[in-house]
Amino acid sequence: MKQQGFILALLIALGAAAILYLMGRPPICTCGTIALWHGLIDSGNSQHLSDWYSLSHIIHGFLFYGATHLLMRRRPLGIRLSVAVAIEAGWEILENSPIIIDRYRTATIALGYSGDSILNSMSDIGMMALGFLFASRAPVWLTVVVAIGFELLALAVIRDNLTLNVLMLAWPIDAIKEWQSAL
């Protein structure tokens, strides 16, 4: 069955949604609305379907495709996608734990961050899957160019991106935090 891995990926995402619900995450933005795009840097981040951080999740998909292509080359694409979804779902659960929420608040510019809505977490998993599938079809050079373009776009608009997010979570640098806060 060629669809087996894709069905497994969907079940993993639904399992993550259930776990997030049991963790007490709100299903949608506590503001009561659902927006397709939330472009402001405020409490609406990580609450709606997409925001500037959605670009980072697409890049996750590029990276997970590359890793599974190298490590699981003989496995069907759907199985490799299900592995990527499991990793992304694991991150969404961890990201919404008190330890990571507190880390974001203290080490990054996300001072008022309260975690993601379940809708946003599912969208993040979907964005990763889109990035994964794009990378599976596009030439490597194009995937790299798009990733660099996304990183530079987010850096220019919100002074944050996947690279800075990882850096600031792992090794906060006051000068970067001050620069980001000046926006």
From TrEMBL:
InterPro entries: DUF2585 (IPR019691). One of its GO terms (cellular component) is plasma membrane. It comes from the Bacteria. It is found in: Cell membrane. Keywords: Cell membrane, Membrane, Transmembrane, Transmembrane helix. The chain crosses the membrane at residues 55-72, 138-158. It is a multi-pass membrane protein. Pfam families: DUF2585 (PF10755). The keyword Transmembrane helix applies. HAMAP family: UPF0314. NCBIfam families: PRK00944.1. Belongs to the UPF0314 family. This is UPF0314 protein GGQ90_000285. It comes from Sphingobium scionense. The lineage of its organism: Bacteria, Pseudomonadati, Pseudomonadota, Alphaproteobacteria, Sphingomonadales.
